[in-house]
Amino acid sequence: MTLRVVAAAAVLVSAAVHLYMWFDGTREDDVLGPSFLLNAVGGAAIAVLLLARRHWIPPLLAVGFGVSTLAAFVITTMVEVFGVTSTWEGWEVWTAAASEVVAVVAGAMLLLADNPLRSRRQRQHHTAVGRPHLH
After folding, report:
1. Do 49 and 74 contact (CB within 8 A), yes or no?
2. pLDDT digit string (tens) for 72-87?
């Protein structure tokens, strides 16, 4: 359960930073404004799902959220996107980037720990081992 809390907190921190940035002026941009708000709402929803559901989908969403959000930022540091070029400056950038890396790592670890295929194989193995052999 602790890893789920870490993943949920990481996603929620990134979502909170994006909501802060939305209120801080990004909302004025016709393209970036809605995407920052969507990031905040989506991150909050993923955090809730991570804590409420013991299923492989919420950790997968955490990984996807972290990778896509961090990748979008990195791309904007290399090329102009919708008139915006970002830099690796400011507490918001470093806080969001660190939380997204944590979301990816924690989500991936949850996926490996809760692998439904591995669980199914283990159940089949235990069932097959426990059966008496009939000749």
Report:
1. no
2. 999 999 999 888 889 9
